[in-house]
Amino acid sequence: MGTIYLGFVASLIAGLGTSVGALPILFAQKLDRNWQGLLLGIGGGIMLAATTFSLIIPGQQSAIALGYSDQSAALIISLGIILGAALLWLIHNNFPHEHFNQGPEGKITENFQRIWLFVLAITLHNFPEGLAVGVGFGNGEGLPLALGIGLQNMPEGLVVALALRELNYSVAYAFGISSLTGLVEPIGGIAGASIVSVGQIVLPWAMAAAAGAMLFVIVDEIIPEIDRESITQEGTLGIMTGFVTMMFLDMAYG
Predict the structure, then answer these.
(1) Low-confidence stretches of the chain (pLDDT beneath 50)
(2) How many whole angstroms from its chain centre is CA 15?
(3) Rounded Cα–Cα distance for residues 235 and 216 (Å)
(4) Of 83, 95, 120, whose CA–CA distance to 195 is shortest?
(5) CA end-to-end span of the chain, whole Å?
(6) CA angle, 90 as apex, 84 and 96 as ends, to 5°?
(7) For residue 101, what are the domain limits?
(8) Ramachandran region of residue 72, left (φ > 0), alpha (ψ -120 to 50) or beta?
């Protein structure tokens, strides 16, 4: 129960990063496209480093500690990554959602309001982050991972709020929806911590699956958003900045 509680609290705090990031919407209504690319890139870089230093490498080490050979451990992590990405791919293709710049995707009904497409898109994005934090606490990697995800959520919260303002929603509504999307992460945190609490034998699989889900989000959601005219270089700079920041946090405090 201690692991589940810590996973819940840490993922809740990380999820509240979206609220902190959305605060500037109270004072500014627009954000330059170049800044959007930079902020999205920072978020993607943090997630990319988190998958490597907080999930994949510790997952391999935990498999070896359970008695698996290096080759078997590598196979477990590889299959786990594929499993996590496949699960998110299935959800991605069967639940309606909308990218900020690519438009609607998935099975969409005529009466489905656009705002809920955005909410579902961020839900798909945030759940694996909470899952990763919850799983991380099962291996002692939760603190730097929660901190990194919280930092990643700040620019994401701002971009979400600004995108909603561009759809002519009120400031209060944009801030509220942006904040609520972060509350999905504690659900993922409880799920991840619960899986790990079943037994240490599940830990390598859970960490690899969380990494696969996050990698899917990076490739399918974040990179396409920043790979647009005039913000590609800013996005690349952001990814490098975010990656180094998360790498430092994990090496220094992991």
Answers:
(1) 97, 100-101, 103-104, 108-112, 229
(2) 10
(3) 18
(4) 83
(5) 22
(6) 125
(7) 2-253
(8) alpha
Q: Into how many domains does the chain fold?
A: 1
The token pair that represents 245 in the structure block: 């920041």
What is the per-residue pLDDT across 204-248, written as a single tens digit (0 to 9) for each?
Answer: 888 898 889 888 888 877 777 776 645 678 888 888 998 998 888
Using CA atoms, how far apart are residues 222 and 47, in angstroms rounded to an integer?
10
State pLDDT tens for residues 98-121: 554 454 455 544 444 555 565 666
Token couple for 184: 């999905």
Alpha-carbon Rg of the chain, whole angstroms? 18
Structure tokens at 58: 């510790």
Amino acid at 102: Q
> Coil, helix or strand for 29?
coil
Structure tokens at 55: 């999930």
Cite the beta strand spans of the chain per DSSP E.
97-99, 103-105
Tokens 């070896």 belong to: 64
Place of tokens 């589940």: 4
Strand, coil or helix: 59: helix
